[in-house]
């Protein structure tokens, strides 16, 4: 070919390609085969009020639905907890409904446990298998061989589950969640003599002191507190509330603070008592509040003698001046408020530290006043479900548990140090009620898939969301897409097939009937025509948000309550061999891992490190330089229990003696988006039992070694280039 | 001498580029098919013209929804079980029904995603369908008659004293 012809030809090809690219293809218009029912207008949306059940905060949601498909979730403006706001996790619940790997019908295990080989069965067969196993237990008179593992339930489902277990004759219902606020309920009981959770009036406070409570991302009711924080800062004309954050790692909450005090892990309680002593010494405390709580300043000061400023400064690694300054500001600026968070509670001295922080609130007179702390109208929950879990694991290992019913994903979310995963292997028959083939469902012998949240009936009592009793309803917004059944319906069906006591205790035909029964009791009406109208009204609003019952509960220190005295924290692992502290923290996208199956959340960049679709470990630049680690390197993290490999993020917002890994990744199942992605840092944790038999999940020490250059870290943006490390350096 | 040629050449190239950009801006680049071939040769001329079926009989969602809607396959079939069931095009229709497959009609009138066009508001304002869709009753095969550009929308909105606020359409 001649040069000229070649050029001509290539020019023509290029022009042709260009023109073809410009040509926009006409779209297709696909009509219905059979038109929709009356009342459905294509192109016109219907909005349903419901409640979000992703986390226990229980925000109110509005779901936009058109042509029988749920399209978008937003916050319900009438709901007092979230006031129309909603977090990214709540919005992503839509992807649970449409997840391509959803379990579409009951499955029976056909391969080895964990192999993921199942055969499809019908609901009749599935329910038959379940009731056969239950009947077997009844015949052997070993009904205590039934164990039920659930997340911490609220509302009607809690009632149903309790009634089922009691009537069947088993006491082994364990509702353990890694991030559940058991520790806070325990502290409330010990200090104030009432089990419950606090409601922080963040919006009206003028000085906020957070001891590791990441209320913007995860703590208790994050949408509510994120919104209240905004009002605290900008909602008032005259004051802008001040915020000081105490904790070794800069979280998103911490990044919103005016002052960061990176105290040494486990020293937060001592810091709180040091501040308390300074406040008492300088007589800055609220005298009437102290008297009302039965505390005498002189006596208290005597007890706090060991927490003098130089010693506390030494323990925490903070400057004396800044501790004194914060203590004076906290006591001098009313109303002020101190919060305790998970990173403090998950130390060996956690429960004592949390009570020390409560003492600060008493000194500043923050109890029962605007801008302070009130008891929340939260549903009662367990003080220490961890001991229940450990007792269950022991019986599982001893072979006393014959049948385990699993709701949720404990195989992923319970640290292996408890021995739960091995103990589950000893249970001859496990039933899972998952919506996806998650880590726990992979271990199950029978899977009876639950509806997605947007196909479900239910009710929610928001956790620590309000001073007044609140009640949210969940209603299905679409017809079930697959051949699934709700967990409540399955329990009721099993009870009626069992006959005897369970059938007598649970005569309801369906979960909806059960739900309506409990709602009728709650709104103090009876089932009947009048209630039907009320029920429709409740569904239209999304629940009952006003209550004629006022907030009558107040906080007063129990006279029997002892003064907190946090011991020196204990850590697992020798300091010379394992020089660094490990903090595992709930990921802002997945919390404890329940959000990992949803690609929107995988794609959500972490607010501090910008990482997407992966796990990472945060290392201070000084520590990293000492170990020769740079951004994106693959590192090995070794603890006395095990080791993991993951990419490094060089993060100036963390103490040099601390490294942090987010929770939530490292699933074996959970659908195509979560499976085999990242690591589960729970595998590293050593079981350290803190005071009051509370687990100390942040008390493990680790060692880092650089493995290679290729950590394959994916970030949205380049945090290295944009950090003002001079602003946040320690 | 040589440099002056270079300058002239550069000026010429710059001019050419400017003309090309101007052309790009002014020429109708939207070159999608104005009257595409449809999977079934449906004739609006027969239905709306000769038989005088009102538009809203089939496009029944136009007064209540943003989208006018195309009749469901079951609706077409309901009539054509009895009306000329043996014509070749109706046989095609029935074949789609037998396969339980929707007819992949090719879209003719389309707006970008950032424009919100509600049919119901225009029907309520008593704008005749033909203002935008042309004389459909005379078309054997449906075709686009309006440019559907923003200026065209604004012209009509101004004539009818309808709102020309940005947020009216771009929401």
Describe, in plain words, how this protein is organized in 3D.
The complex is a heterodimer of chains A (730) and B (171). By secondary structure, chain A is an alpha/beta fold. Chain A has a 7-stranded mixed sheet. Residues 721-730 of chain A have low confidence and may be disordered. The longest helix of chain B has 25 residues, at 2-26. Chain B is built from 9 helices and 1 strand. In chain B, helix 4 crosses helix 5. Chain B has helices spanning 2-26, 44-50, 55-58, 73-80, 88-99, 119-124, 129-133, 150-159, 166-169; one strand at 105-106. The model of chain B has no long low-confidence stretch (mean pLDDT 89). Chain A binds chain B through residues 22-35, 41-44, and chain B through 29-33, 36, 61, 64-67, 69-75, 97, 100-108, 110.
Task: Provide tags for this entry.
heterodimer, A: 730 residues, alpha/beta, Rossmann fold, Dimethylsulfoxide Reductase, domain 2, Barwin-like endoglucanases, 7-stranded mixed sheet, 27 helices, 33% helix, 16% strand, globular, disordered C terminus, B: 171 residues, mainly alpha, elongated
Task: Tell me briefly what this model is.
With 730 residues, chain A is an alpha/beta fold. In chain A, helix 7 (222-234) links the parallel strand 10 (207-211) and strand 11 (242-246). In chain A, helix 5 runs parallel beside helix 20 and helix 9 packs across helix 13.
Shape of chain B: elongated
Radius of gyration of chain A: 28 Å
So, CATH architecture of the domain at 187-375 in chain A?
3-Layer(aba) Sandwich
Strand-residue proportion of chain A: 15-25%
Low-confidence parts of chain B: none
Mean pLDDT of chain A: 89
For CATH, the homologous superfamily of the domain at 187-375 in chain A is named as: Dimethylsulfoxide Reductase, domain 2
What's the total count of β strands of chain B? 1
CATH topology of the domain at 187-375 in chain A, by name, is Dimethylsulfoxide Reductase, domain 2
Note the run of SSEs of chain B as H and E: HHHHHEHHHH
DSSP strand tally of chain A: 26
